[in-house]
Amino acid sequence: MPTAELPLPHAAPATDVPAIDLHAVGVRYGPARSPVTAVQDVSLTVAEGEFVVLVGPSGCGKTTLLRVVAGFERATTGTALVRGTDPAPGRGTGLVFQQPRLFPWRTVGGNLSFALARHGLPRGLRASRTEELLDLVGLPGFEGRRTWELSGGQQQRVAIARALAGEPRLLLLDEPFAALDAITRERLQEELRTLADRTGTTVLFVTHSAEEAVLLGSRVLVMAADPGRVAAQVSICLERGEHTDVAALRGTAEFARLRAELTRALLTASGGGGGSEGEAVS
Ligand code: ADP
Ligand code: MG
Fold this sequence. Notes:
Elements: E1 20-29, E2 36-46, E3 51-55, H1 62-70, E4 77-82, E5 93-96, H2 108-118, H3 123-136, H4 152-163, E6 170-174, H5 182-199, E7 202-207, H6 210-216, E8 219-224, E9 229-235, H7 246-250, H8 253-269
Parallel strand pairs: 3-7, 3-8, 5-6, 6-7
Antiparallel strand pairs: 1-2, 1-4, 8-9
Helix pairs in contact: 2-3, 2-4, 6-8
This protein binds adenosine-5'-diphosphate and magnesium ion.
Adenosine-5'-diphosphate (ADP) is lined by residues 29-30, 36, 38, 56, 58-64, 228.
């Protein structure tokens, strides 16, 4: 993110209660006669301040798991807790999807004010907070712009700002950069990682890209399909330095090693064995 002072210095207090605690979670859709098992027996604990990535092929239940954590979907079996309580939409959780989903009839500032109002911020404070949020995502002075005037990357920045409007302690992102061009994606990856480091926000990030998973995550969970489940886990111990530089990181031998390891895990989880080191799996 830009170098301006961050208005979100809400490093999570040290606590033993995990940010996310899933125990043997299963989700089934459809009629009882012919249910679709979207995820089965997923157990996962994410500590406050962790940056965890879920990676896996299309249909392995990544979005379903995120929806359970967001409180949009109930686990059919098992238990899901967010900071020790039942997940519920809005309660300290910010969401970013692949498409920005902004209101086209509102300005950029209007979109953010609407979110701030929903989070109960008094009207008199909304303009200055909107300004802060736009600074934070690198769009200073964009309040009056129409959403259709913005590039895809700029719209996604607004979507991230909107997700931050409620000062969430947990950010859930579902393939947020998948539709962006490579350069914009790289910049936003860098900025998201810096933002998470500086604010102490817990992040659960979904992608189908092994490269993105290694760039961003401290820990990567590899999912497999039919039924959706966690098949492997890879710890990412990269020297990131204070300001994440994605291009430099990508050039390191350690990065290449981790990406190869993760790609192997993905191929195994997808039922493949050899083949080339494909970057995406869906
Ligand atoms: P991913 O995000 O990894 O692509 P999803 O969580 O979207 O996977 O889907 C996991 C599985 O659950 C898929 O087989 C999908 O078709 C199925 N599924 C997802 N949502 C629904 C739904 N609302 N009703 C029925 N089946 C669904
Ligand atoms: Mg999905």
